[in-house]
Predict the 3D structure of the following.
Amino acid sequence: MKHHITGLHHLTAIATDAQTNINFYAGLLGLRLVKKTVNFDDPTAYHLYYGDAAGTPGTILTFFYWPGASRGVIGAGQPSAITFSAPASSLDFWAERLQRAGVTATRRSRLGEDVLGFADPDGIPVEIVGVDESRLGWTGAGVAAAYAIRGLHTTELTVRDPAPTESLLTDHMGYTLVQRDGNRARFEAAPGGPGRYVDVIGDRGARRGTGGAGTIHHVAFRVAGDTGELDMQDRLNAAGFHVSEVRDRQYFRSIYYREHGGVLFEIATDVPGFAVDEPAASLGTALKLPPQFERARAQIEELLPPLQPARLAS
Ligand code: ZN
C-alpha cells in the first residue's frame, strides 16, 4: 500500500500574548515569522505561523492567542512538547543564549541524542535536539547558520494507553517503529530523519490534559497534495475514525480526526504553501486575510493589537 504521509507538517499551540510570543520564537529562537493572519473561526484574534525561510512543512509552528484565557493543563491526550532540531554542536550556543535571556534550560540525553529543554513564556515545554541533518535554518533573525534551528524534530504525544495510538501510526499512517526506551517509542515516516518522527509516551498515571493557554492544540502530518489527502480520508474513515471534511486553510488543505488517546490529528497538504498570497521574500510582514474576511479588513485591523517586529535578544 502506498503511504502518503511524509512526516510532520505543523504543530499548533495556544498562547496568551502575540507580541511576547513573537519576541520568544522569532527573536530569541530565531524562527522566521512566515505568516501573520487571523484565526479563521475568530478573526478578532491573530494566528501566527513560524518556520524556515519558506515555511516548509515540518518546520512550521503556529499559535492562536487567547488573551486572558484560563490556562490549560498539558497532559494525556495532547502533544506534550515542541521539539526542534539544531546542529549537534549548537547546544552550547543555545544554552548560553537562553541563559542570557533569563530562560532556564536543562541538558539531557534521550534516545542517544543530546536534548536542551526549557519552557516558552506560556509554560509550554520546548526542546532543541542536537542533530546534524540536511535542512537549512533561517538566518534572517540573526542566528548564524551553524546554530539555526532547522525545524521540528519530533512530536511527542502523551497518552495513557499507547497501544491504539501506536497501531494507528503503523497500521494506517505508514509510520515505522525505530526505537523504544522505557515508556517512549519513536516512530518514523519515510524517508526518515528529523521532522518525520513521532514519539509516543505511554503514561497510565498521566493526568488528562485540558485545552487552554499554554497547551499544544494539535499536530498536523504532511501529504504532498489533494490525492493523498483524499485517500487518507477514505482509509481512516474505513478504519473507523471520524474524519472531517476537507477544510481550506488558505496555505494548505486539511482533514482532522481524533486518535484513541485523545490527541487531535490533522493531515495537511504541502500545497499551496505560504507564498500563495504574498511574495516569498516578504513573508509574514503584512496582515493577510482570507477572501471571506477581506471586506471587513478595516474593522478587523482595529480590533487586533498592533505588533512590532521581534525584539532580538542581545
Ligand atoms: Zn493545524
